[in-house]
Design brief:
about 0% strand; mainly alpha
Length: about 120
C-alpha cells in the first residue's frame, strides 16, 4: 500500500502534463460548485452538481494514477450526465438542471480514450 505522499507523486509524475492540470481544474470546479450552491436547501436538484463534481474529481484522480476503473467511471458519469442534461433540455423531464461541464466532460473523456491502453 502506498502512502499519501507516494500517491500524490505518482498522480503528478506518471501521466502526461495535461492529466494533473485537468485534475486541478476538476478540484477547483468542485470548490466553486460547493461555494455557489452553499445557500440552496438540501432537497434541491441543483445539489446534484456537487455530487457530479465529487464523482468527476474522484474518477479523474484515479485516471491520473492510470487506473482503468477510474477512466471507466469517468466515461460512465459523462454518459449519464450528458443523457440527463439532453433529456431535460429536450423537455422530456420537467426539472431545472444545470450541467457544469457538459461539453468539457466529453473532451476530457476523449483524452482518456487516447491513453486508455496505458491504464492498468
Amino acid at each position: 500500500m502506498r502512502s499519501f505522499k507516494e500517491l500524490v507523486i505518482d498522480i503528478v509524475q506518471k501521466p502526461p502534463v495535461l492529466f494533473p492540470l485537468v485534475g486541478l481544474f476538476h478540484f477547483l470546479m468542485l470548490v466553486w460548485t460547493i461555494w455557489s450552491d452553499r445557500y440552496l436547501h438540501f432537497p434541491d436538484v441543483a445539489l446534484l452538481e456537487v455530487l457530479w463534481m465529487i464523482g468527476y474529481t474522484f474518477f479523474w484522480i484515479a485516471a491520473c494514477d492510470f487506473r482503468k476503473w477510474g477512466a471507466s467511471g469517468y466515461f460512465l458519469l459523462t454518459l449519464i450526465d450528458t443523457s440527463i442534461y439532453l433529456a431535460i433540455r429536450n423537455g422530456k423531464l420537467p426539472v431545472e438542471y444545470r450541467s457544469n461541464m457538459f461539453l468539457l466532460d466529453g473532451l476530457f473523456s476523449f483524452f482518456l480514450l487516447v491513453y486508455y491502453k496505458r491504464f492498468r
